[in-house]
Every structure is written in C-alpha cells, then in structure tokens.
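User: For documentation purposes, I need each entry recorded in a consistent format: the amino acid sequence on its own, followed directly by the corresponding structure tokens. There are two entries in this batch. Please keep commentary to a minimum and don't merge the entries.

Assistant: Recorded as requested. Entry 1:
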Amino acid sequence: MYKLILISVLFFSLISHGDGHENIKEKFTNHPNYLLSFEECKETKNGIAELLSATDSVWKEIELNPMNEKKWIEVSGLSDLAANYSTIYDVWCKDMVNKRVAMRMMAKKKKSIKNKKER
C-alpha cells in the first residue's frame, strides 16, 4: 500500500511538473494579482463600459417596440455579461487599481512636501 501511494505521488508530481506549472508559480511570486495585469484590468473596465453602452442602446430600442422578444433576449445577455465582467473586475482588479492610485497620491504628497522644504 505504501509503495502504491509513493508511486502515485511521484507520478502525479512529474505530470504536473511537465505541464508547465512553473510559469504559473512565477506569476504567483512576481505579481500579487497573477490573473490579470494592470493593462488587462483597464481592458476589462473598458469592455464593461462598452457592454453597458450597448445594453443602454438596446433598452432604447425596446422602449420603441416592447413586443420585440429578440431585443429582450439581447438585453438580458448583455446585462449578464456586464454583470459577470464587473464581478471579475471587482475581485481581481479593484484592489490593484486602488493601490496604484494610492501610491501615486502618496508620491505626489511626498513630492509636494519635499518642494515646500526646499523653499
């Protein structure tokens, strides 16, 4: 039994090592938010804005013709997509973006304090 467990552990560790999981480990260690980079977060945010804009235009079409079932299905799908991507942004990007903004504000504050001291 002990040999079977040992062989299984070795086999699965070799398989997982061979699948390229090293790259994921590097992302874990090099970047605190390993799933999405700052640029990808910006793209996600812009995509959400586009989905909401498209949803708004479909709602305007529905107001003109409320009996159009295709538009109801379309607005439902667009709303779901916007909600799903908003959740992704909230979970993976919001803290990173807030941290960057706070760091920039702190840098400006330090710079202004330094400038005041030099005067």
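Entry 2:
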Amino acid sequence: MERAWRAHGQAWARRLFSTRSLTIVPVDHPNEETMLRLLTRLIGLLLLAGGFIALIVDGTRSIAAGRLMVTSLNRGTSAVFPGLYQSMQSSVENVSTFLWDPVLTTLMTAPVSVAFGGVGALLILLSHRRQTPLYYARR
C-alpha cells in the first residue's frame, strides 16, 4: 500500500513540475519609484501614529486637568528639542523676519496631533499608485 502511495506522489510531482506545464513568469523587480513610494508610506504611517499618540496624550491631560489642554507645535518642539528650536528660529530670522514672525509662528500654534496626522495622511495619499482608468467601448 505504501509503495502505491509513493508512486502516486511521484507521478503527481512529475506532472506538476514538468517543463511543458511550467510557465515562467518574470518577477517584477522593485524600481526606484516603488521604493520611494514605500518609504513615503512608511514615513506617513509613522507620522500618523505619532499624531494619534499626541491626541491620546492631550486627551489624557485634558481629562486629568478638567479642561481642554492641547500641545501646540511651538510648545512641543521647544520641550523636546530646545536647542533645535532656538537654532531654527535664529536661522529663519536671518533669512527673513517676516517669514518667522507672522508665517511660522502662526503655523506653530497648530496642535501636534493635527499637524502630524495631517502630514501623515497627506503622505499616505500621495504614495498611492494611480490606477489606470477603465475604458469601455461605446456602441
């Protein structure tokens, strides 16, 4: 009985891997565009996760304080990277004081969760491959 099963298995393997039925499909190797799309999506997901974590932290702080507490980009950046924030401010002011004072200070008042989540969602949307439109024949 065992010999019959072994012979059946060998015949099945010969049929499966015969050169007549085996078709070789070329593998689509990832190119630079695919790798850049993957990197963009990864950065977008990390930023989206960071925005979600910032939202949870702000929500927890708001519940503990009994009032709405939101961490702005200004406060978050100066708390985490104080040297980087000061150097960024001085270098942008050297270029243009108008760029720092009304433009970037207004943008830095946005909540961390909204800024990270928005940029992350934008990167994820930009990393999707455009689908080719379907064309239907008209009669």
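Summary note for entry 2:
The radius of gyration is 28 Å.
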